[in-house]
Amino acid sequence: MKKKIIVTGGCGYIGSHTAIELIGHNYDVVVVDDLSNSSQDTIDRIEAITGVRPTFEQVDLKDAVQTESLFSAHKDAAAVIHFAALKAVGESVQKPLDYYQNNLYSLLNTLKFQHQVGIESFIFSSSATVYGIPKALPILETHKAQRPSSPYGNTKKIAEEILEDFTKVTPNFSAISLRYFNPIGAHESGEIGELPNGIPNNLMPYITQTAAGIRDQLMVFGDDYPTKDGTPVRDYIHVVDLAKAHVQAVQRLIKQEQEQSFEIYNLGTGNGFSVLDVIKAFERVSGQKLNYQIVDRREGDVTELYASTDLAFQKLGWKAELGLDEMIESAWRWEQKYRGKEN
Ligand code: UFG
Fold first, then answer.
1. Number of domains in the chain
2. Cα 109 from Cα 115, distance rounded (Å)
């Protein structure tokens, strides 16, 4: 019998790539999404790529009644992977209550009602933002979490604290939190990828949209950081590698291999690239010059951040395999294919 996995936020960027990997590993996938920042077309695209149509449930997880009925209809699921959340850092500063309400109510309802029907495995979509300003690099999971610089980031930190408290007193319930560094790239088919709402906040979609002529010019936020070329350094990770790590984490929980009821893993490559490295790689891979200019620093940006990846390798047997060129190539393929379809 196929094991059923519930993927909340499964029409979104990382959720949809994870649904594809799960289907590829013979899991029965239920995508749950409120479609507030995604489209149901994603289900068609997942089907086109995998040949399997996941079950789709349009549910607002902030709503307890809807969440309870979702879980009573899928009591037989083996695990939940919880991606559903708002994720725009800048917007969260402007609308903190929306972020706390959305990201935390949906988490609380999911935990409560999945546990009520006996689904005792949970994977959480966290972020390296919980580290705040790093004291040492590469960052180990044991690095003390600090108050993140945005309400968005704080919802991730609070969520991890909730999971720690809940797993401590709930026998049989196990959770894994996956702290993502900078996910970029797209599925090799070019059928699914990152589709930011409005003007992108993140570097990669801003680059591909600039190259596609949707934005005039990329702004590089500061070149006076103490790094090799003055621009900040990040650990970019291919979204397909990231998706694969979720499958490994699901398997660890299902096989009850976890050593603690709440475990935390970094998901990065361990390599740092500067903003100018990414721009140069994009120009090389696409064969196209990018229009950019250096402007002032963006508030809240840290100088340098990259992961220690040893723990994920030791315990999940997972390591990122795709390099920066493959990340950029796939992101660019997705952007071009998507725009081609749009026009
Ligand atoms: N950058 C630019 N121009 C842009 C966008 C970004 O120069 O238009 C630069 C940023 O200054 C930064 C780098 O590109 O140096 C990466 O920026 P992103 O916005 O792509 O990524 P961040 O590292 O800022 O954000 C990521 C995640 C967030 C998370 C945050 C904190 O996307 O979800 O890390 O760790 F909160």
1. 2
2. 10
Residues 291 and 150 in one domain: no
pLDDT tens, N- to C-terminus, the chain (343 residues)? 899 999 999 999 999 999 999 999 999 999 999 999 999 999 999 999 999 999 999 999 999 999 999 999 999 999 999 999 999 999 999 999 999 999 999 999 999 999 999 999 999 999 999 999 999 999 999 999 889 989 999 999 999 999 999 999 999 999 999 999 999 999 999 999 999 888 999 999 999 999 999 999 999 999 999 999 999 999 999 999 999 999 999 999 999 999 999 999 999 999 999 999 999 999 999 999 999 999 999 999 999 999 999 999 999 999 999 999 999 999 999 999 998 865 4
- Active-site entry in 13, 131, 152, 306: 152
Same-domain status, 102 and 210: no
Residues with CB under 6 A from ligand 1: 87, 89, 127-129, 153, 182, 201-203, 206, 218-221, 232, 234, 275, 298, 301
Q: Classify residue 57 by its DSSP letter.
A: E
Q: State the CATH number of the domain containing residue 284.
A: 3.90.25.10
Clarify whether 100 is annotated catalytic.
no
Mutation pick for ligand 1 pocket among 202, 229, 279 (CB with most ligand atoms within 8 Å): 202
Alpha carbon distance 31, 51 (integer Å) = 16
- Residue 302 Cα to ligand 1 middle (Å): 9
Question: Which residues lie closer than 8 Å to 122 by C-beta, 6 or more apart?
Answer: 79, 80, 82, 110, 111, 114, 163, 173, 174, 175, 176, 253
Enclosing domain of residue 256: 4-185+236-268+312-316
Q: 203 CA to middle of ligand 1, Å?
A: 6
In the chain the first and final C-alpha atoms are separated, in Å, by: 43
Are both 291 and 164 inside the same structural domain?
no
One domain for residues 176 and 224: no
